[in-house]
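Need tokens for this chain, all 918 residues.
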Amino acid sequence: MSRRVRRKVGRRGKEKVVLPSYPEIEEEVSGSVYNGFVDWTGLPDDTVIQLFSCLNDRDRASLASTCKTWRVLGISPCLWTSLDLRAHKCNDAMATSLASRCVNLKKLRFRGAESADAVLHLQARDLREISGDYCRKITDATLSVIVARHEALESLQLGPDFCERISSDAIKAIAFCCPKLKKLRLSGIRDVHADAINALTKHCPKLTDIGFIDCLNVDEMALGNVVSVRFLSVAGTSNMKWGVVSHLWHKLPNLTGLDVSRTDISSAAVSRLLSSSQSLKVLCALNCPELEGDTNFAPHKYKSKLLLALFTDILKELALLFVDITKKGKNVFLDWRNSVNKDKNLDDIMTWLEWILSHTLLRIAESNQQGLDVFWLKQGATLLLNLMQSSQEDVQERAATGLATFVVIDDENASIDCGRAEAVMRDGGIRLLLNLARSWREGLQSEAAKAIANLSVNGQVAKAVAEEGGIDILAGLARSMNRLVAEEAAGGLWNLSVGEEHKGAIAEAGGVKALVDLIFKWSSGGDGVLERAAGALANLAADDKCSTEVAVAGGVHALVMLARNCKFEGVQEQAARALANLAAHGDSNSNNAAVGQEAGALEALVQLTQSPHEGVRQEAAGALWNLSFDDRNREAIAAAGGVEALVALAQGCSNASPGLQERAAGALWGLSVSEANSIAIGREGGVVPLIALARSEAADVHETAAGALWNLAFNPGNALRIVEEGGVPALVHLCSSSVSKMARFMAALALAYMFDGRMDEYALVGISSESISKGVSLDGARRMALKHIETFVLTFSDPQTFSAASASLAPASLAQVTEGARIQEAGHLRCSGAEIGRFVTMLRNPASVLKSCAAFALLQFTIPGGRHAMHHASLMQNGGAARVLRAAAAAATAPLEAKIFAKIVLRNLEHHHMEPSL
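Here are the structure tokens for all 918 residues:
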């Protein structure tokens, strides 16, 4: 896998990233500059406090620790009216340490049950707003104690995930303890009974905003008695009695906004509410199947009442709230925010609408329903972009999360809807998201980075992100001390690094070092950030230059550490893939050797081939395959148990993906270059699974299997095993039928090794026992093999071209033969002296077919421009091959193909300046 999505500013060109400007601070700082240095201690206290106010809680605490004066200023009450603990694991000890600063705390955001338990230790008795998410484990007891200690509470919101362990008893406690409560929004409560709602009615006279969202049962009659309520949401709540609702709720004297989205409300109930309520101005009914299915429903007949549904023009409807008709279309939210003449009632409505729309759109996006493409393209994307500009931080976050989510079609396969992604881009969404990502608020940074990451799966969007300076921004966020921010930023770099054109820019922005540092920083307890960092490094390591930067930044050690110690399969897979890519540049840098020399690297990769997860096994085998190109690594892999592990992997992957099969065969191919390893592979039972893989229909699989069998067949004992296990028919089939020239070539070479005579003495011993029991006929197998080798060679021998070359031996004629016979990929093969010597010896074999095959092989290995052509020419020179080649070229009884190919090989040797002077 090379990218990931989660269901989840800028610069232009080479301009510097523009940060927020604070003229007052700049003026004070400029007055404290001496000889190019800033005397920060000379700043006035109010300027320092203003600087503190621009930082998040963590950075503020770090800055305050620099000196005594700033420590005192850092705990100024005006800096601690709001606290966001979502990025921290807030336990009792941490909360106690913060208590002295939280005397005047008014607003608190937290995440999870442990943080909820710790809230009491903040001793912030004047808290007015509490907002919590990931609240599934929060109990009635915890919530009851929290509200009992914070009687001044005016707003309590828990969600959007379900509060499964909270019941009506906790709601009653809220009512008894918080008489000043104005806003109560709870998600996913099983039952909201009448007595709980009646307690709210009795004890919370200022309660104007109620949300019982995604609940199972809510007492409709009791809600109809909350006369103070102005804004009510029961979105996603099931089992509602809409007949009761329509007959009671229209009587609520102050009800201004009602949200029934994602419910089964009927058109009749909607009609009654809109026609009967005197106070109702906005009814939001997004994604209500029964309402949408009523084709006779007329939404525009209720004057002065707005109905927001999937089938209405939502922004146009909202414009009707304004007296000024210029406020219409896509700019309605922006016009409202910039309005000079403020209307409190209208502000309340629009503020509530921002919240419920952001919540509902996110829920719809998460459900990934079919048939909503038109809505998302015409309205949904535009609405989310409008909401991202809200002054409400939680609305901005949900809108960004909605953008990250609605583009995703298939999270598992990293598939997004290109039309939706490009719609966001066309409407200026990239710049908006990058602006959010540059916010000092870490919650916004995290959600914006997530959206950028998902959208960047689309190549056009990725290009736009890069052009707007997004790579620098993400590289900066990857250095964040907030794990959630760093995780999403790493995900963005992972997806951007898929594009070759972005790899260099990521490296230039310091992204490589940031990603490596993430692995060390979150080496435990951060599976998400580790997977994304390793995935991004894997993509970057595929580039030769970036591969070197990864190694220089300490990436080899970091990735090996993950492969050895991390137990999460996603991290293991990406770490192994990164190591495979680092080891793939053996000819251009030293990373291959460096990975092999890293303590525990090879042992870890061998161990990962036994993982229960196919992706991990595949990438580990791929890494071992690449590493096996280094001589020392090859022997070290074998010493680490690699032969046994890879044979077992090949034996168990008959029903696996082609990718795993290819890498399993490829790793055995790489190890089998060593004769000792080749013998060990045969002894461990590697022949049978390789023959099975050679029968695969996938060209990549049977090509690598043919390569491994070619190497194994060099040893006579293995050659006999291949014959005994039915390998000859499999290789003959490849030799004649594969679409891959390389597969046909290596199958022919394997057959040539098997029947050039060296297997005979083994056969004499083996035929009388096991071979006979398997019905093996060496003579029949030999005839079959030689026939198909001959056919293979002749496919590269055009009679007319060969006749012309034979008659003239002119360079042009020989060059034409060479081009017709050339197998491009064969230039990457590297043979040992023993292998080259065997083909030279084969030129003297009495079988004319083998002479032609040997000459053809030597031609492939010495064609100028081949990666290892000089190496092969040197081996042939040292082995005295020129004399044998001349004899073969001049032999009267040799096939024409053998003679012409031999002459071309001699010319190749001359080209490489390896022909000795006579």
